[in-house]
Each structure stands twice: as C-alpha cells, then as structure tokens.
Amino acid sequence: MPQLLIPRLQDRECGISEFYKRELDLEAECVEADSTEPISPNSLIFCYDIGVWANRLKVSKTNSVSVILSANEYYDVRKYRELNEFDAIKFAFIDYLPDYPIRVPLAEITRWIFENKSCLRERHFWGTLKKALKHFKELSSFDFGFPTMRMPLGYSERYVRELELLGLTNGSNESLLRSSPLCELTGRSGVSFIGQRGTWYRRQMTSSFSKFPGSRVETYTSWGGNPVKQPQTQYADSILGSRFVVCPPGNVSSESFRYMESIILGAIPILTEVSIQDFTRHNYWPKDLNLDLRTYMTLWKSLNCKNDDELSKIYFDLLSHLIFVIQEVKDKITELTSNEDLKT
User: Fold this and answer.
1) Is residue 293 part of a domain?
2) Measuring CA to CA, how many Å separate 315 from each of 51, 116, 274?
3) In 236-295, at which residue ranges do the beta strands (DSSP E only) sit?
4) pTM exceeds 0.70
5) Domain for residue 123, yes or no?
6) CB of 132 within 8 A of CB of 199?
7) Domain containing 173: what range?
C-alpha cells in the first residue's frame, strides 16, 4: 500500500483524509518537512503549499518525487509556479487542475445574459465575470514543467461522520464508492441543497431551484463548513431523500464535493461543465452522456424529462465513470511510487 508523506506542522493536525484512505488506499506517514534531509526517490508527498517542502526538495534527486497539491477551491497560479521551481518534482496531482486548452465559452455567456437580463444591472455579475476572465488569462498562459493529473476532490470529513452516524459505513474504512450504493429511486423525490450561500453565481443557482415545487433548498451564511457543532445527519439525509442534488460552484471552481457525495448516496448531481464563474472544464461527466451541460437550467431540463429507467442508467454511468477516474489515479500512484527502477 503506497504511503503519503504529510508534513508535520504546528497549525494542522497530521493525518490523512478519509477520501485518500478509503478510495486511494493510501497510508499516512507524518514527517518533518523543513529538515535538510533529501526525500527518498519515488516518494509521494502532500501539501497545501509546496514551500513547506522547499528545503528537502532542493537536496532531493532530480525527477524523483511526486506531489499531491490540495488547492482549496482555487486555481492558484502562484502555487503552480512554485511547483516549477523544484527539479526534484517528476509528477503532480492537483485539485482543480484546469483541462487544457481552456476557452472562454462566449456562447454560454451570451445565453446566460439573454436568459437573465436583470443580471446586467448587478455589479456582482460583472465582478464574477471579471474574476473568471482573470483566471482564464492566467491559466491559459501557464505550463507545468512536468506531467500532471487532476486529483478527484472526493468527499469531506464531515460527510463521512454523517454516514457513520447513520450506520452506512459499517464501522470500516472500506471504499464508499465501491460499497453497495443506495441508488434505488423509489421513495425519492425532487431536488435538494443544504450549504453556504456563498458567491453570487452560487446564490443565483440555489435560488432558481428553491422556486420549484417540492424542492428542498436550505442555505446559511457562515463560512468554513456547516456551522452546527453537534453531531448531525441533515445533509446526508437530504441527499438520501432526493433524486437530484444541486452542486453549485465553491469559491472559484465549478467543481464540488457534492458531486461524489451525491453519487455515493444514490442521487444525481446537477453540475454543469462550465459556469459564468468558472470557464475551465472538469472530467466529471462521461463523454457519451446524452445531456445538455451548457447551463444548470439546460441540464435540469435534460434530467427532469427522464423516466426512472433512464435516470437509473444515467446514475450508473456516473458511478462507473467516477470509479474509473479514481482507478486511473490509483494506478498512476502505484506506478510513481514503485521501487522497481531502484532495484535495477
């Protein structure tokens, strides 16, 4: 089982995420990141900022170390540039890695403005558009000096705690995706969302769905996760009772933890390929899925007209694709951390 080296930092608990442990079969080893000892060849290291490993990477063998960079809902070109400063890095797995080539979806922007003319009077719309164009400009002019792969976002620690409270994990550390998914549509209805109000586009999206009969949309204004401290299961319960789950963007990216969290509990996520907030594309949706992914309303119309059999097929296509994407990452980690080249 591959080991993930995690820096021992004073301000962070040293441990591995539930997703890495359950889905990627990684074990954690907490080590001193700021020493002057080289990192062993074929190691896999974790960071939020590569700077914590700088001293060790500088004295490590060229093209010998792989990195997992957790980006925390941002396309951070500054962090990407810092990765390029170290010759020791041979490969990087990155959250929110944009798919290249990036293009501004002018047709989608025009369509959005035409269907939401009132947004032209809102400064938040223009601020969102300006920020998205800024990210586009930065990302489209940047190249990594080594191969990269998108790291699936996985699911949150809070989500796993809720499943444990509901007795859905059997007290084990087994994969949540590969265990029997709760995918029966019978007894489910409508669309739901529980989460932060967040950015302007996120508020637009959740507000649109809150107007539909039977929808269950609940927003709160705090930041940094659910504000309720005591153990709870409302979020997981809302997914278990829904056919569809609204998956709006986070701070920047259109990607969302809710995508995998919804699929694990048998619901279909409403997540578009691109948004006014984020022009980069992700690889969540199978390429041959016959859905209109241009905007969240076109996607909703594509889904809402399907019968139970059609929705079940879409669900299993999403589940199979997600398992395939994660297996690709696992295979790549195994390849990168193999010591076969050292033996020869």
Assistant:
1) yes
2) 41, 30, 20
3) 244-246, 268-270
4) yes
5) no
6) no
7) 157-326
Within a domain: 238: yes
Confirm whether 170 is domain-assigned.
Answer: yes
Q: How many domains does the chain have?
A: 2
Which of 129, 151, 173 terminates a domain? The answer is: 151
Q: d(Cα 88, Cα 5) in Å, to the nearest integer?
A: 15
Q: Per residue of the chain (344 residues), what is the pLDDT tens digit?
A: 788 999 987 666 678 899 999 999 999 999 998 899 999 999 999 999 999 999 999 999 999 999 999 987 788 899 999 999 999 999 999 998 887 666 777 877 888 888 888 888 999 999 999 999 888 888 888 899 999 999 999 999 999 999 999 988 877 889 999 886 666 766 788 999 999 998 999 999 999 999 998 899 999 876 555 555 567 889 999 999 999 999 999 888 888 899 999 999 999 999 988 889 988 888 778 878 888 888 888 899 999 999 988 999 999 999 999 999 999 999 999 999 987 554 33
Residues 168 and 94 in one domain: no
Structure tokens at 162: 């809720």
**Domain edge (last residue) among 108, 124, 151:** 151
Residue of 35, 92, 87 lying closest to 61 (CA atoms): 87
